[in-house]
Amino acid sequence: MSDFTRDELHRETSRTQGLLTTRSEYDRLGRLHRRDVFTGNAQRPSPRRWSRRWDYDYRNNLVREERDDNPFSWYRWQYDSAGRLLVQDGTLPGQEQWRWDAAGNPLEGSVEKVTHNRLTQLNGIRWRYDIHGRTVEKDNGRTRWHYRYDGEHRLTEVISQPRDRNKPQTQVSFRYDPLGRRISKTRRQMLGGQPTGRAVTTRFVWEGFRLLQEVHGDVPLTYVYSDQDSYDPLARIDGVDAPEIFWFHCQPNGTPERMTDIEGQVRWEGVNSAWGKLLRESETQVSGYSQNLRMQGQYLDRETGLHNNLFRYYDPDCGRFTQQDPIGLAGGINLYQHAPNALGWVDPWGVSRCKAPNGYKTGDVDPHGNLSPGVNRASGHTNSKNDGFVQSHHPIQDAWAKKRINGYQRNTAPATLLKSASGSPHANISSAQRTRRVLPGGWDTTLKQEFHISYKEMIDAGVPKQQARKSISDSYKYFDQLRESNSSNIHFDI
């Protein structure tokens, strides 16, 4: 279906997609910097069909995208100090600005905070919640949607009520398997409270927690992904007897923006908002089946406008989930938040966001709460024997910081992924920490001393200098934010 070439760091450098070849380039920090799509194979590609170029800031936030299409176009983004999106502008649709409260809720007008993190209005849309914190109504002035749930807080029914009473209502019902995966969607038209016409059912088949097929009648649409653990779609195969293959061309966060056929012709193209809403699309597929994959792990229900995100539903009109996080505070302090921004973060299961679109890898640096969950790991970088037990390590020892620094939180503190098997960097660092802590006054060091000692321990254990320096740099920025609450703390001396 596709042939891949990779560099010495195992990063993808090219893939074939029918008669097209996509070539990828990376900057010196390993971030995806450019993609060019050519007609022809990887060795002799010609001519170039289109290209994308991306730039990042020092926090690894995406700040600019250039599209060398016809005509040339671009996007630009600005963020606050917490990585939350403030401005999107450019030559394409979707120019927006945002304000946020301290908990990461979007604000409108003179509103300064969102009570219980339950957003009630934004951009002319209103929401209502039940006593369980589930969204039960949404109203955009033209249509009102009513949501119903089962005892497991899973969405089971959505009824849309157009303001124009001459238009039919739409009832959409959902069924799930014992693992919480959605297995069917049934749509009915209703007029005057009575069904009109026949019900249309779409069935869903899963491979683990990845969508494998959507089945319309007897026609399966089968999804293939970039690798065995990725949620980044590679291709869709329509039908069985005379299958037609479409290849996906995705943004850095894995959101499809084009589909091409075996001849290299564009069969679908979409323009997305910064939070994954489909703003416009053009479609020339002869198969007649819409392209509904959105951000990684998300499937668009066109009847409701919501995205099924495995264990929850995502509302792209506000960039948030309709239900509270099923894993509670383990997924973050804001139970409705998707992520600080959707350009560099993904959440394939709808429970725990991840800043690495294809999963975190050994050497990555980010808050411990993002690195630690197993759902966020790339293939070959899991906490398993075969992968060398890759675990999250706090540069400033977690146990020491809990004892000595006011306001410290382990999940929001920076950490880095290290192999932890015997003789590996994490094991060596842990051994060094245990040795010095048992000495007299071993726990009475200052924060400045911890920075110096911890950096040396990482270097001595074999952690690459670039990784160690970023870990220490991010840690300094984190602890600097705790300065006020430690004004009289003798251990806080940075």
Automatic annotation (TrEMBL):
Q: Name one Pfam family in it.
A: Tox-SHH
Any idea where the RHS protein conserved region domain is?
245-281
Family matches, as InterPro entries = RHS, Rhs_assc_core, T6SS_VgrG/RHS, Tox-SHH_dom
Q: Which Gene3D superfamilies match?
A: RHS repeat-associated core
- Looking at the record, the residues that make up the Tox-SHH domain are 387-480
Under the heading NCBIfam families, the entry gives: Rhs_assc_core
Q: Which family does it belong to?
A: Belongs to the RHS family.
Q: What is this protein called?
A: Uncharacterized protein
Q: Which organism is it from?
A: Enterobacter cloacae
